[in-house]
Design goal:
The chain has 277 residues and is of the alpha/beta class. It is built from eight helices and nine strands. Helix 3 packs across helix 4, helix 4 packs across helix 5 and helix 4 packs across helix 6. The termini are far apart.
Length: 277
Protein backbone atom coordinates (compact mmCIF):
# COMPACT_ATOMS: atom_id res chain seq x y z
CA UNK A 1 0.00 0.00 0.00
CA UNK A 2 1.29 3.47 -0.97
CA UNK A 3 0.16 7.05 -1.03
CA UNK A 4 -1.19 8.11 -4.43
CA UNK A 5 1.74 10.48 -4.94
CA UNK A 6 4.28 7.74 -4.28
CA UNK A 7 2.39 5.26 -6.45
CA UNK A 8 2.41 7.71 -9.36
CA UNK A 9 6.12 8.37 -8.98
CA UNK A 10 6.81 4.62 -9.03
CA UNK A 11 4.40 3.69 -11.81
CA UNK A 12 7.08 3.24 -14.46
CA UNK A 13 5.70 3.38 -18.00
CA UNK A 14 2.20 2.22 -17.11
CA UNK A 15 -0.42 4.35 -18.85
CA UNK A 16 2.00 5.96 -21.28
CA UNK A 17 0.68 6.09 -24.85
CA UNK A 18 2.38 4.31 -27.69
CA UNK A 19 3.11 6.44 -30.75
CA UNK A 20 0.02 6.95 -32.90
CA UNK A 21 -0.28 5.44 -36.35
CA UNK A 22 -3.68 6.83 -37.33
CA UNK A 23 -4.28 10.56 -37.00
CA UNK A 24 -7.98 9.82 -37.30
CA UNK A 25 -7.91 8.01 -33.95
CA UNK A 26 -5.63 10.61 -32.39
CA UNK A 27 -8.21 13.28 -33.23
CA UNK A 28 -10.77 11.33 -31.19
CA UNK A 29 -8.37 11.12 -28.25
CA UNK A 30 -7.79 7.40 -28.74
CA UNK A 31 -4.36 6.16 -27.70
CA UNK A 32 -3.05 2.67 -27.14
CA UNK A 33 -1.53 2.77 -23.67
CA UNK A 34 1.05 0.60 -21.98
CA UNK A 35 -0.36 -1.49 -19.16
CA UNK A 36 -3.87 -1.33 -20.68
CA UNK A 37 -6.08 -4.04 -22.14
CA UNK A 38 -7.68 -3.01 -25.45
CA UNK A 39 -10.40 -4.85 -27.35
CA UNK A 40 -11.14 -4.53 -31.08
CA UNK A 41 -14.31 -6.26 -32.30
CA UNK A 42 -15.76 -6.77 -35.74
CA UNK A 43 -17.38 -9.16 -38.17
CA UNK A 44 -15.36 -11.97 -39.79
CA UNK A 45 -13.17 -10.43 -42.47
CA UNK A 46 -14.12 -7.00 -41.18
CA UNK A 47 -10.63 -5.52 -40.91
CA UNK A 48 -9.57 -6.44 -37.37
CA UNK A 49 -6.37 -8.22 -38.35
CA UNK A 50 -5.68 -5.79 -41.18
CA UNK A 51 -5.88 -2.72 -38.94
CA UNK A 52 -3.92 -4.19 -36.05
CA UNK A 53 -1.16 -5.77 -38.13
CA UNK A 54 -0.76 -2.46 -39.99
CA UNK A 55 -0.27 -0.73 -36.65
CA UNK A 56 2.29 -3.34 -35.64
CA UNK A 57 4.22 -2.75 -38.89
CA UNK A 58 4.36 1.04 -38.63
CA UNK A 59 4.34 2.03 -34.96
CA UNK A 60 7.55 4.04 -34.49
CA UNK A 61 8.77 6.01 -31.46
CA UNK A 62 10.86 8.54 -33.39
CA UNK A 63 9.68 8.26 -36.98
CA UNK A 64 13.25 7.26 -37.87
CA UNK A 65 12.95 3.49 -37.66
CA UNK A 66 12.83 3.17 -33.87
CA UNK A 67 9.88 0.82 -34.07
CA UNK A 68 7.90 -0.43 -31.10
CA UNK A 69 8.95 -3.92 -29.89
CA UNK A 70 5.94 -6.08 -30.73
CA UNK A 71 4.76 -9.63 -30.13
CA UNK A 72 1.86 -10.74 -32.32
CA UNK A 73 -0.11 -13.96 -31.76
CA UNK A 74 -1.52 -14.70 -35.21
CA UNK A 75 -3.72 -17.71 -34.46
CA UNK A 76 -6.36 -16.52 -36.94
CA UNK A 77 -4.07 -15.97 -39.95
CA UNK A 78 -1.48 -18.31 -41.48
CA UNK A 79 2.14 -17.39 -42.20
CA UNK A 80 1.65 -16.66 -45.89
CA UNK A 81 -1.40 -14.42 -45.35
CA UNK A 82 0.40 -12.43 -42.66
CA UNK A 83 3.58 -12.26 -44.72
CA UNK A 84 1.75 -11.08 -47.84
CA UNK A 85 0.22 -8.19 -45.90
CA UNK A 86 3.64 -7.18 -44.57
CA UNK A 87 5.34 -7.31 -47.97
CA UNK A 88 2.46 -5.50 -49.68
CA UNK A 89 2.57 -2.73 -47.06
CA UNK A 90 6.36 -2.46 -47.23
CA UNK A 91 6.59 -2.35 -51.04
CA UNK A 92 3.23 -0.70 -51.78
CA UNK A 93 2.20 -3.54 -54.06
CA UNK A 94 -0.87 -5.73 -54.50
CA UNK A 95 -1.09 -8.69 -52.12
CA UNK A 96 -1.17 -11.04 -55.13
CA UNK A 97 2.20 -9.65 -56.25
CA UNK A 98 3.50 -9.95 -52.68
CA UNK A 99 2.46 -13.62 -52.60
CA UNK A 100 4.17 -14.26 -55.92
CA UNK A 101 7.42 -12.74 -54.68
CA UNK A 102 7.37 -14.73 -51.46
CA UNK A 103 6.66 -18.00 -53.25
CA UNK A 104 9.57 -17.28 -55.62
CA UNK A 105 11.84 -16.51 -52.64
CA UNK A 106 12.57 -13.09 -54.10
CA UNK A 107 15.68 -11.90 -52.19
CA UNK A 108 14.66 -8.22 -52.44
CA UNK A 109 11.25 -8.95 -50.92
CA UNK A 110 12.78 -10.89 -48.04
CA UNK A 111 15.46 -8.26 -47.42
CA UNK A 112 12.85 -5.51 -47.23
CA UNK A 113 10.64 -7.74 -45.08
CA UNK A 114 13.49 -8.23 -42.59
CA UNK A 115 14.07 -4.49 -42.42
CA UNK A 116 10.35 -3.65 -42.22
CA UNK A 117 9.49 -6.15 -39.49
CA UNK A 118 12.73 -6.57 -37.54
CA UNK A 119 10.97 -5.28 -34.41
CA UNK A 120 8.12 -7.76 -34.74
CA UNK A 121 7.93 -11.33 -33.45
CA UNK A 122 5.01 -13.49 -34.55
CA UNK A 123 3.63 -16.71 -33.07
CA UNK A 124 1.50 -18.78 -35.45
CA UNK A 125 0.31 -21.31 -32.87
CA UNK A 126 -3.23 -22.18 -33.99
CA UNK A 127 -4.71 -22.51 -30.50
CA UNK A 128 -2.34 -21.04 -27.92
CA UNK A 129 -3.09 -21.54 -24.24
CA UNK A 130 -2.49 -18.83 -21.66
CA UNK A 131 0.62 -20.78 -20.69
CA UNK A 132 1.83 -20.64 -24.31
CA UNK A 133 1.29 -16.88 -24.32
CA UNK A 134 3.19 -16.50 -21.06
CA UNK A 135 6.10 -18.59 -22.33
CA UNK A 136 6.32 -16.65 -25.60
CA UNK A 137 6.41 -13.35 -23.72
CA UNK A 138 9.14 -14.63 -21.41
CA UNK A 139 11.14 -15.86 -24.42
CA UNK A 140 10.75 -12.47 -26.10
CA UNK A 141 12.05 -10.73 -22.97
CA UNK A 142 14.98 -13.13 -22.68
CA UNK A 143 16.16 -12.52 -26.23
CA UNK A 144 15.11 -8.88 -26.68
CA UNK A 145 16.07 -7.72 -23.17
CA UNK A 146 12.69 -6.10 -22.59
CA UNK A 147 9.03 -6.99 -22.49
CA UNK A 148 7.09 -6.35 -25.69
CA UNK A 149 5.61 -2.86 -25.67
CA UNK A 150 2.77 -3.87 -28.01
CA UNK A 151 1.15 -7.30 -27.74
CA UNK A 152 -1.63 -8.51 -30.03
CA UNK A 153 -3.82 -11.59 -29.57
CA UNK A 154 -5.58 -12.41 -32.84
CA UNK A 155 -8.17 -13.83 -32.09
CA UNK A 156 -9.72 -14.34 -28.64
CA UNK A 157 -11.84 -17.23 -29.91
CA UNK A 158 -8.66 -19.09 -30.92
CA UNK A 159 -7.08 -19.01 -27.44
CA UNK A 160 -7.45 -22.40 -25.78
CA UNK A 161 -8.93 -21.84 -22.34
CA UNK A 162 -9.89 -25.46 -21.72
CA UNK A 163 -7.46 -25.81 -18.85
CA UNK A 164 -8.95 -22.97 -16.86
CA UNK A 165 -11.76 -24.94 -15.26
CA UNK A 166 -14.49 -22.77 -16.82
CA UNK A 167 -17.86 -24.19 -17.79
CA UNK A 168 -18.88 -22.12 -20.82
CA UNK A 169 -17.43 -19.94 -23.58
CA UNK A 170 -18.34 -16.65 -21.92
CA UNK A 171 -16.62 -17.38 -18.60
CA UNK A 172 -13.68 -18.92 -20.46
CA UNK A 173 -13.15 -15.78 -22.53
CA UNK A 174 -13.62 -13.56 -19.50
CA UNK A 175 -10.97 -15.61 -17.69
CA UNK A 176 -8.56 -15.22 -20.61
CA UNK A 177 -9.14 -11.46 -20.64
CA UNK A 178 -8.51 -11.33 -16.89
CA UNK A 179 -5.17 -13.08 -17.47
CA UNK A 180 -4.26 -10.67 -20.27
CA UNK A 181 -5.23 -7.62 -18.24
CA UNK A 182 -2.99 -8.75 -15.38
CA UNK A 183 -0.25 -9.50 -17.91
CA UNK A 184 -0.53 -5.97 -19.32
CA UNK A 185 -0.16 -4.53 -15.83
CA UNK A 186 2.82 -6.77 -15.02
CA UNK A 187 4.78 -6.22 -18.24
CA UNK A 188 3.70 -2.71 -19.17
CA UNK A 189 2.65 -3.92 -22.61
CA UNK A 190 -0.26 -2.39 -24.47
CA UNK A 191 -2.29 -5.57 -24.98
CA UNK A 192 -4.75 -5.66 -27.88
CA UNK A 193 -7.22 -8.51 -28.23
CA UNK A 194 -9.33 -9.05 -31.35
CA UNK A 195 -12.77 -10.62 -31.02
CA UNK A 196 -15.99 -11.34 -32.89
CA UNK A 197 -19.47 -9.80 -32.68
CA UNK A 198 -22.95 -11.27 -32.42
CA UNK A 199 -24.83 -12.60 -35.42
CA UNK A 200 -26.97 -9.49 -35.78
CA UNK A 201 -23.84 -7.47 -36.63
CA UNK A 202 -21.95 -9.88 -38.84
CA UNK A 203 -22.92 -8.06 -42.03
CA UNK A 204 -20.18 -5.61 -41.04
CA UNK A 205 -21.84 -2.68 -42.82
CA UNK A 206 -23.27 -0.59 -39.98
CA UNK A 207 -21.66 0.78 -36.80
CA UNK A 208 -21.55 -1.90 -34.10
CA UNK A 209 -22.60 -0.94 -30.55
CA UNK A 210 -20.92 -2.06 -27.35
CA UNK A 211 -23.59 -4.67 -26.69
CA UNK A 212 -22.81 -6.24 -30.07
CA UNK A 213 -19.67 -7.93 -28.71
CA UNK A 214 -19.96 -11.70 -28.63
CA UNK A 215 -20.41 -13.00 -25.07
CA UNK A 216 -20.60 -9.43 -23.68
CA UNK A 217 -16.89 -9.38 -22.84
CA UNK A 218 -16.63 -5.60 -22.45
CA UNK A 219 -16.07 -5.33 -18.70
CA UNK A 220 -12.30 -5.75 -18.33
CA UNK A 221 -10.77 -3.71 -21.22
CA UNK A 222 -10.09 -0.01 -20.73
CA UNK A 223 -10.67 0.68 -24.43
CA UNK A 224 -13.15 -1.06 -26.74
CA UNK A 225 -13.45 -0.28 -30.45
CA UNK A 226 -15.76 -1.86 -33.02
CA UNK A 227 -15.18 -1.97 -36.78
CA UNK A 228 -17.48 -1.89 -39.77
CA UNK A 229 -17.05 -1.31 -43.51
CA UNK A 230 -19.60 1.19 -44.86
CA UNK A 231 -18.18 0.95 -48.39
CA UNK A 232 -15.36 -0.98 -50.11
CA UNK A 233 -12.81 1.79 -49.56
CA UNK A 234 -13.27 2.72 -45.90
CA UNK A 235 -13.11 1.15 -42.47
CA UNK A 236 -15.39 2.62 -39.83
CA UNK A 237 -13.98 2.65 -36.28
CA UNK A 238 -16.38 3.24 -33.38
CA UNK A 239 -15.20 4.06 -29.85
CA UNK A 240 -17.71 2.32 -27.60
CA UNK A 241 -15.76 2.32 -24.32
CA UNK A 242 -12.85 4.51 -23.23
CA UNK A 243 -11.67 4.97 -19.64
CA UNK A 244 -9.70 8.10 -20.50
CA UNK A 245 -11.83 9.75 -23.14
CA UNK A 246 -15.09 10.12 -24.96
CA UNK A 247 -17.06 7.11 -26.19
CA UNK A 248 -20.63 6.19 -27.11
CA UNK A 249 -21.93 2.73 -26.44
CA UNK A 250 -24.23 2.87 -29.48
CA UNK A 251 -21.25 3.12 -31.85
CA UNK A 252 -21.92 6.63 -33.10
CA UNK A 253 -18.68 8.19 -31.87
CA UNK A 254 -16.59 7.12 -34.82
CA UNK A 255 -14.16 7.88 -37.58
CA UNK A 256 -13.62 6.56 -41.10
CA UNK A 257 -10.20 5.43 -42.31
CA UNK A 258 -9.43 4.94 -46.02
CA UNK A 259 -8.63 1.28 -46.69
CA UNK A 260 -7.55 -0.76 -49.70
CA UNK A 261 -7.48 -4.39 -48.51
CA UNK A 262 -5.93 -5.70 -51.70
CA UNK A 263 -2.85 -3.51 -51.06
CA UNK A 264 -2.83 -3.93 -47.26
CA UNK A 265 -2.95 -0.12 -47.21
CA UNK A 266 -4.60 2.40 -44.92
CA UNK A 267 -4.72 6.18 -45.14
CA UNK A 268 -3.25 7.35 -41.82
CA UNK A 269 -3.78 11.11 -42.10
CA UNK A 270 -6.76 13.09 -40.88
CA UNK A 271 -8.79 14.94 -43.46
CA UNK A 272 -12.01 14.81 -45.37
CA UNK A 273 -12.22 11.03 -44.95
CA UNK A 274 -12.53 11.37 -41.17
CA UNK A 275 -15.54 12.44 -39.18
CA UNK A 276 -16.73 12.15 -35.61
CA UNK A 277 -20.42 12.45 -34.83
Amino acid sequence: MQTLSLALKNRGEEGEPLPPVFEQLDVLGVKFRRGWLHLIAGAPGGGKSALTSYMSFLMDYTGQGDKVPTLYFSADNDKLTFGCAAVAAALNIHTNEAEKRLEQNDPEAYAILDQFTGHLWVSFEAAPTVRDIREEIDAFATVYGDWPHFLVVDNLMDVDGSGGGFHDERTTQDGILDFLKRLARETGAAVVVLCHVTGAHTNGIDPIPRDGLMNKIDKRPQLVMTLHQPDPNHLGVSIVKHRRGRARSDGTYLTYIPWMPEYAWFGVKSGSDTRAT
